[in-house]
Amino acid sequence: MISNDSQIVTPSNAGQILVAPRYLSVAKAATVSGLSRSTLYNFMKSGSLDYVKAGSRRLIFLSELDDFMARLPHGGSLADV
After folding, report:
1. Residue 24, H or E segment
2. What are the DSSP calls for 51-78, one per residue?
3. Please, which pLDDT band fits residue 12 given cuts at 50, 70 and 90?
4. Alpha carbons 78 and 80: distance in angstroms, whole number
5. What does the CA dihedral 51, 73, 21, 39 come to, rounded to 10 degrees?
């Protein structure tokens, strides 16, 4: 597999360039993180998870989700965040 920032090329998709998204919907962020949508909304409301609004949609930058997940306590409670 060859990776160049946002481009990933594997033998199965040779000839195609896949571009990783820079932002995720709340539903996709929930799938990626394993957290529920309501948990993500609660963290956004508390200011623990940054997001942007596009119309009525909330979008979470992938880098922000990665940073947020890294800040979660290991073996602790989400209430500690």
Report:
1. strand 23-25
2. -EEETTEEEEEHHHHHHHHHHSPSSS-G
3. low
4. 5
5. -50
Its pTM stands at 0.68
pLDDT of residue 2: 41
Count of all residues that appear for the chain in the document: 81
Cβ contact 40:33 at 8 Å: yes
- What does the pLDDT look like over 28-75, one tens digit per residue? 999 999 999 999 999 999 999 999 999 999 999 999 999 999 998 887
Residue appearing with tokens 């000839």: 15
As given in the structure block, the two tokens for residue 74 are 């290991």
Query: What are the structural domains, with CATH classification, of the chain?
Result: 21-80 (1.10.1660.10)
